[in-house]
């Protein structure tokens, strides 16, 4: 985690001094606290996640859930047998923004262990989001593993039928469905989603009634435990359906690495010749066969061509 902090501090936060907030389902080790506090001049806050936000809800059949996990283990599905991974995905889908320690915050930047930035960020990303009416920011889009989300799309379509008023008229369903004519109810999800280990976004959006109702609906389906629904596709569906296209922002100028993928701005004059970035444009994940970025560019335009 300290390596991630070192990168974010060096590339961004030493200029702006935003506080760090650490959440954990268990009490933090004192050595960890001391270690991360040494990495920044900013305030650092620590909080323990309430048990009810990191445990099985009463309606989950844990025997059935265990059987389904074993099936995924047998099929070599990544994190297929992990209970903690499922609790984490459910927490990030429905509870992180409800933590008491975050009540006074309107914006967040999610930072995970082992990530790295390769470009200097010389502007305030939160002011940028607010000034430009942005709500959700991302860097990487890619395909989800179908085995882990087999019923998530159907559940989302069912929710949309129950709450058509929640679907924004300027939504980005066409990013999720290749056949634009079919739309949400008739089209098949192409498995594209925003990779949520990097998010810069509005906490107000996750606290909104449409998202609250959406998460509750999904949670009662049990897919976080019976399958392995991730917070990434859940967040992606919500952003694509409940927000206007203009509220979703691709931080193409932030070269971000989360193993095994990394992005890198393409414009050498703007980002490389001046020493702002230290990455190789030709190696950017944006043009990898597993990336959904070309699909996003069809929706929102390719910023590298500006």
UniProtKB/TrEMBL annotation:
InterPro entries, per the entry: Glyco_trans_15 (IPR002685), Nucleotide-diphossugar_trans (IPR029044)
Active site: 199
Swiss-Prot/TrEMBL keywords: Transferase
Keyword check for Protein biosynthesis: no
GO cellular component: Golgi apparatus; membrane
GO MF terms held by the record: alpha-1,2-mannosyltransferase activity
Protein's UniProt keywords contain Transferase: yes
GO BP of this protein: cell wall mannoprotein biosynthetic process; protein N-linked glycosylation
SUPFAM superfamilies listed in its UniProt record: Nucleotide-diphospho-sugar transferases
Taxonomy, superkingdom: Eukaryota
Pfam families tied to this protein: Glyco_transf_15
Record-linked Gene3D superfamilies: Spore Coat Polysaccharide Biosynthesis Protein SpsA, Chain A
Family: Belongs to the glycosyltransferase 15 family.
Protein's name in the database: Family 15 glycosyltransferase
Species assigned in the record: Rhodotorula toruloides
């Amino acid at each position: 985690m300290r390596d991630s902090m070192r990168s974010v501090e060096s590339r961004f936060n030493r200029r702006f001094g935003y506080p760090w907030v650490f959440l954990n389902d268990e009490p933090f080790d004192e050595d960890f606290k001391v270690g991360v506090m040494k990495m920044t001049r900013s305030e650092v806050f620590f909080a323990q996640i309430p048990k009810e936000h990191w445990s099985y809800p009463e309606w989950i059949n844990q025997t059935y859930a265990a059987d389904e996990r074993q099936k995924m283990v047998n099929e070599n599905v990544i994190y297929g047998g992990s209970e903690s991974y499922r609790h984490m995905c459910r927490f990030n889908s429905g509870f992180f923004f409800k933590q008491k320690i975050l009540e006074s915050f309107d914006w967040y930047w999610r930072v995970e262990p082992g990530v790295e930035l390769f470009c200097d960020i010389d502007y305030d990303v939160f002011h940028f989001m607010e000034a430009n009416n942005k709500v959700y920011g991302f860097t990487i889009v890619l395909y989800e593993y179908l085995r882990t989300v087999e019923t998530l799309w159907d559940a989302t379509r069912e929710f949309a039928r129950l709450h058509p008023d929640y679907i924004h008229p300027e939504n980005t369903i066409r990013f999720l469905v290749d056949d634009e004519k079919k739309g949400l109810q008739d089209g098949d999800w192409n498995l594209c989603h925003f990779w949520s280990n990097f998010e810069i976004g509005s906490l107000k959006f996750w606290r909104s009634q449409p998202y609250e109702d959406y998460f509750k609906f999904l949670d009662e389906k049990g897919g976080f435990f019976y399958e392995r629904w991730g917070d990434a596709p859940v967040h992606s569906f919500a952003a694509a359906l409940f927000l206007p296209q203009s509220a979703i922002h691709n931080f193409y100028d932030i070269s971000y690495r989360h193993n095994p993928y990394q992005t890198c701005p393409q414009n050498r004059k703007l980002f490389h010749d001046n020493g702002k970035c230290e990455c190789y444009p030709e190696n950017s994940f944006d043009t990898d066969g597993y990336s959904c970025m070309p699909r996003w560019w069809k929706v929102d335009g390719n910023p590298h061509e500006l």
